[in-house]
Write a structure and sequence with these properties.
2 copies of one chain form a homodimer.
Chain A lengths: L3 E6 L3 H12 L1 H8 L3 E7 L3 H7 L5 E3 L2 H5 L6 E4 L6 H11 L3 E4 L2 H18 L3 E2 L10 H8 L5 E7 L2 H13 L3 H11 L7 H4 L2 H15 L9 E2 L7 H9 L2 E12 L2 E12 L11 E8 L3 E8 L3 H18 L30 E10 L5 H11 L4 E7 L8 E7 L2 E2 H13 L3 E10 L4
Helix pairs in contact in A: 1-13, 5-6, 6-11, 8-9, 14-15
Chain lengths: ~425, ~425
């Protein structure tokens, strides 16, 4: 069969990884795909890098529009990142009737609805496995492997930087700021770490997973997003005493009232497999009504792991090129005409259990006041720790685990508790999920 | 589009699960697949069961040949099990130009080469995701999700009964026979447990995974198979002291000398995620050269988990029906013309580390004799435990972890150690894998 000609936009980390793996494993990939797949045209400003990678047969240009407009290119692989130029290039490639593969989660989360509509109108595919959880084929698992299931919920550790930081805090009792500085030195975290540690990157990925799980248009703006920058070494230690690890989770859950779509630090029982996913690794647990729990684990970033997903998408697109477009796997797992506009629940309406930590004066009656405020809102306490004061302090740390409660009720209760004269400063609260 | 008519062979556990999930999730499945999929014709001797399941519109027959010969049936789903009648029925369905889905791992492991050749000649598909690791879409991950990779090795807990037994032995310090009796009472183990506890079921599954990983024909007879029936509570406890859990693994590894394809009890470091997969759950870890380590976890058996995989296959077949057969995912992941006859290594040629346990007389010089025998075959000792004798015994238990060694060398060394007058009875040996 005819070889497939790939146009590659970008030779950054993932672009280099993609070129390297396509060249190194060319024989193995051809044995699988049944035809040669090669990089025909590359948009890069660094011709020397292309040569160093061994892309000696590829045409080079420093103008990405040349690639998306080239009639010989069967498929455009967008690895620039960013969401402005990348979007314009993808839209043009699609208008030119080309299939597209991208690792760009922000682009899909923010503009996917529009991009998919354009692709469907032209009968081309947009593949984006590499956008979520790097090398883990979790989009494939959700869209195809679990197609028999109503997805009940999914929960993912989908930002490697955040998981590296929380793992160091757990295993070495270190502080957030200290570990962040190290992560920046190691290149795991950007100089401006906001995207990772404040959960925006995870929210992009969760938005995509949620739409694929429930068959709704992408709703990034509705994703509740909270980062890990306020987690302290004490919280990590107290959670451990109670049998929990703190992980930064993206959660999507189908409820009778709507879809929960939220990214935040979460206490998870240590006996759960996902609580033991450490370092820069990612994992996504999916609960289907037929299959029950499944989990997908692997590296969430890096040149070759991400390239693994990019190339799997390229092979998938090659295989589906000759299929009737109506029989292809839909972009959001469900047929475009069958998407539903199920509402994303406001975070105040979400029900979870909570971990609460507060500093209180060590005198009679304080605990009674706190439990009365909680009880008035039907909030039951499931576990309780009291920590003796440090040498030069008089206040004690109180830690509680509550049962499940509507978040709005918890907010009211915390507001009242913070008014108590015996309570110093703010109440720390972290959501708790049993994942069962 | 036209609905897809499924012919179902068998209403046993998985057949009932498949019918139940297809009916319960019909709307969700149609939203994904883009067309209705319904059970049109069922081979069962139990018409009442079909009615009870809600298969009120389906035609029923007690003659399975009626289903495979029926012109209205688009796809045959074989859930009888066994490898004689099932094979004849599949071959006939294929000859009739029908696509086939099966959960029958024995059938594929033993007769897959012949069945796939027949299917390729007729341009139809044979799908078998449910045959390996139940509801976990691991065949899809290997064949499609990791298509960019040279697979280096894979290791799976792929028999739920065996993992239940080893988990109970670990968590409750119980003996094998005691737990097996309970597993039989709970219905997790058959009255004749040979298939599960002696590793034959796992060997069927590993044979399939190995072919898909390396692009070789199925080679069941070459799979080395060792069960868990000789694992003792002491071995589990001693392994724990050394930082390992014992799991029944199926392992396939590509080496310069050939493919390792083996099922046996294995010590795995407790820090590995797969060492913490407990109870009846399954997991498969796959090491690809680009992606690195990935892991797939979920229920390996049960009516609805297995049905989840069966129905995912049905949807996949529906999607690929209109594709050029040459562009479909090949049965064994690689194009039939590109399979290689890479040799499976005899177990004597495999290199692993070993756990050794032996009873020896508690007197000077014994340990020197043992380490001399090991040293003469370049076997280094990595860890060592000596256990004081029980009250009315004089012999002590010696436990060693060795470094990696060719199994043939270890067999020779053990033979000589067992000749020593100071060593009582046989030396217990269990292979050790770092999975890194």
């Amino acid at each position: 069969m005819e070889p497939v000609r790939v146009g590659l936009l970008g030779l950054g980390t993932v672009g280099q990884g993609t070129a390297t793996v396509l060249l190194r494993n060319a024989e193995e990939i051809t044995r699988r795909a049944g035809r040669d797949i090669y990089v025909d045209f590359v948009a890069t400003r660094d011709a020397a890098k292309a040569k160093a990678l061994g892309l000696t047969a590829a045409r080079l240009t420093d103008n990405a529009w040349d690639v998306v407009d080239d009639p010989a290119v069967d498929m455009v692989v967008e690895l620039f990142g960013g969401d402005t130029l990348a979007k314009e290039l993808l839209v043009k490639a699609i208008a030119n009737g080309k299939h597209v593969v991208t690792a760009n989660k922000a682009l899909i989360a923010l503009h996917g609805n529009e991009i998919f509509a354009a692709a469907e109108a032209k009968g081309v595919m947009v593949a984006f496995e590499a956008g979520v959880a790097g090398g883990i084929p979790v989009i494939k698992a959700l869209r195809e492997g679990l197609s028999a299931n109503r997805i009940e919920w999914l929960a993912g550790i989908i930002n490697g930087t955040g998981n590296f930081i929380l793992t160091e805090m757990l295993q070495k009792s270190r502080d957030f700021a200290d570990v962040l500085a190290e992560a920046q030195a190691l290149g795991y975290a950007e100089a401006d770490p906001t995207f990772d540690v404040e959960g925006i990157d995870a929210a992009h990925k969760l938005t995509i997973l949620s739409s694929i799980a429930y068959g709704t248009p992408l709703q990034f703006k509705q994703t509740y997003t909270e980062g890990i920058s306020r987690i302290t070494a004490e919280d990590v230690a107290y959670a451990g005493e109670l049998g929990y690890n703190i992980k930064h989770l993206g959660l999507a859950r189908r409820t009778a009232k709507g879809i929960e779509q939220r990214v935040h630090p979460t206490l998870i029982p240590q006996r759960c497999l996902i609580a033991n996913v450490h370092g820069v690794m990612n994992a996504v647990q999916v609960q289907g009504d037929a299959v029950g729990p499944t989990l997908y684990y692997g590296p969430g970033a890096g040149a070759e792991p991400t390239a693994s997903a990019v190339i799997a998408d390229i092979v998938d697109v090659v295989r589906a090129m000759t299929a009737d477009p109506n029989n292809r796997v839909p972009h959001l797992a469900f047929q475009p005409s069958k998407l539903t506009n199920t509402q994303v629940l406001p975070i105040e309406e979400v029900e979870t259990a909570f971990y609460l930590r507060m500093k209180v004066a060590d005198r009679p009656g304080v605990l009674a006041d706190i439990t009365r405020i909680l009880g008035e809102r039907d909030i039951s306490i499931e576990a309780f720790l009291q920590k003796e004061p440090a040498k030069d302090e008089s206040d004690v740390d109180i830690i509680m685990l509550t049962q499940r409660v509507r978040e709005g009720n918890m907010n009211e209760a915390i507001g009242q508790i913070e008014q108590l004269a015996a309570v110093a400063g703010e109440v720390t609260r972290i959501r708790v999920e049993a994942l069962a």
